[in-house]
Each structure stands twice: as structure tokens, then as C-alpha cells.
Amino acid sequence: MVSLINITKYRKIMKQLFILMILFFFTWTSQAKKNIYPFEIVVSLADVIVIGEIYEDFYSFQTSQILKGNVDKMLCIKKIDEWECDMRTVDYKKGQTLCLFLKNINDTLSIINGNTGEMLISEDSISIGEYEDYQQIKYKSQSNKLPLSEFVTGVKLFCKSFQYTGKDELFYYEKPFKIIGRQEYLKIFADQSQFTKWLLTKLANYPILIVK
After folding, report:
1. CA 26, 32, 34: angle at the middle one, nearest 5?
2. Tens of pLDDT along 17-55?
3. Residue 212 to residue 61: CA distance in whole angstroms
4. pLDDT tens for residues 163-176?
5. pTM of the model as a whole
6. Is 107 left (phi over 0), alpha (psi -120 to 50) or beta?
7. Among the listed residues 197, 203, 202, the one whose alpha carbon sits nearest the alpha carbon of residue 153
């Protein structure tokens, strides 16, 4: 009888351990999945947004356009630490043209949200493939690309027109945007392109403050 009781208790303990292991596995895999910040949050949190090219293999970056902030012509940027859920589509190489979204942390510029803050540019088009909801907007080229000139104009207008009031990226939908631009900026922004219209639909997810 004692032996039978011990076996029953052992089976019960093993069953509980098995359930805990399953729960741990699903918790770990859900945490391991990359949390992609919305594009409007990436633009707002960036202290610097630049377009340029990799000057050396160790990631010396030479800027050609500044969309936001003030920086030197030559920047030293740390490469993205790639992992299973955040891999680059192509390898780093000299001459590669990118748009970088950078945050100033302890006087060091770092790319925001891994691969989300680094967008490849080729043939006057920029790839924003991480944002699946953008793919509903159709262009003659691939649906996850848009003309670079349209992107640059839209981002600059966005920075002039709107300001995010939150600081914690994990709770972005709880924080409002402020309208800071003049009325003519807002009118131009609304009518500028399919890209800016897409950004306006995304802003509908937030409370909006009007600064007078």
C-alpha cells in the first residue's frame, strides 16, 4: 500500500512538472518573438533620422540626408545584434544605402528596435517590409516598398506636424500625440501621398491633443 501511494504521488508530481514545463515553453517563445514598434512611434522616439551609406565594414556611416535632428557627416553606429526573430535580409557591406532611426543613449547613437530602425534603400525606393499593414497600399513596384522621395517628404512633414507625448515604448497606445504643426502643414500632410494617408490612419489609434 505504501508503495502504491508513493507511485501515485510520484505520478502526480511528474504531471505537475510536465505542465509547468509546457507553460514555461510557451511563455519563453512568446517573449522571444520580436515586438515591432509601430512606425509612427519609431519616427517619434528617434532623436536622429538619417539617410546615407555604410562607409566601412565596421559600420562607419556617411550621411547624405538628415530627416530629423542634427549630426555630423560621419557617424559611428553599432551594428544590429541579430537573432532568430530579427535577422537582416542582406549582409552588411560597404556602400549599402540605409535609412537609420537613431536614439541618443548616454551620448551614443543606437538603432531603435533592432532591424525596425534600419531600412534598406535601393533604386530610389525604400523597403518598409516589417510593417505588414502598409502592404495594403499598392505601388507599381513591390507592395512593401515606396519611392524614397515620397518617404523623405512624409517623414519630415510628420516630424513638423506631430509629437508623441509618451516615453515608454511598451505602452504607446495609452499616450496621445500632439498636433504641433501649423494648419498648412496638416493640410499638406493629409494630401501629400498614399504614405502620409497611411500614417494618418495609424494616428487614429491614439488620443490627439491640439496645441493652440
Report:
1. 130
2. 555 555 544 444 444 455 778 889 899 999 999 999 988
3. 39
4. 998 876 656 667 88
5. 0.75
6. left
7. 197
Residue with cell 517628404: 153
Q: Residues with Cβ < 8 Å from 204, sequence gap 6 or more?
A: none
Q: Give the type of residue at 164.
A: Y
Contact predicate 39/202, CB 8 Å? yes
Give the integer Cα–Cα distance in Å for 163 and 27.
34
Fill in the amino acid letter for 80: I
Contacts 24+ apart (CB under 8 A), 32-38: 32/84, 32/85, 33/85, 34/85, 34/86, 34/114, 35/113, 35/170, 36/113, 36/116, 36/130, 36/131, 37/112, 37/113, 37/116, 37/169, 37/172, 38/131, 38/172, 38/202
Q: Which amino acid makes up residue 102?
A: L
